[in-house]
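Exercise 7.
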Amino acid sequence: MIDLHTHVIPFVDDGSHSMEDSIEMIKESIAQGVTTIVATPHHYYKKYQNTVEIIKNNFDFLKEQLTISNININLLLGEEIYYSSEEDIISLLKSKKLLTLNNTKYVLLEFSTTREVKDITEVIYNFVVSGYIPIISHVERYSWLKRDIIKKLKEEGAVISVNSTSFTHNVSFIERHKVKKLIKLGLVDVVASDMHSFRRSTMGEARRIVKDDRLFNFDLSK
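Solution. The predicted structure, written as tokens, is:
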């Protein structure tokens, strides 16, 4: 299994506050059956704005500690980028000031859970025509993002992702129902953990519930 949305790098966001936390999260993820983890620390305007150099240094330090601890996992690097109209995200990506997933065309995007992005179809279109493939993280959390819009975004070229915990934990009835309906309609492309130190991986549990290996083995080769 590949988990393309995680917050396992220590000291760069709210995901992990210690190397011990990071290693424990990764060990639990391996126990769930995950073989590849993409570390995607938050980039959030005026909140989490680490430089690429800082992120890469902490990422390399984590990889060194995993080697020392004989923990075998394919660990890749990216970012989860919160969409804000106050930043030119595409320009920041092109100038290598923000990270795609594993240096591919895939960009993991997050939006406000409560504030509607009225031009979201155009936002996705702009990423696509700029040569990127946007992955929209945890679509079930966006109360304003309705099924017909999700379908349009997918048609525009977006990849639709949901969290594994939406199948296995006490999320709201609305989120759980939304995920099940999207899965049934074939609108989901990826299940990922979005794991933090306070939200551990449930990828194996979700896979047993969903019973669709395609959603847990996303091809990041583009």
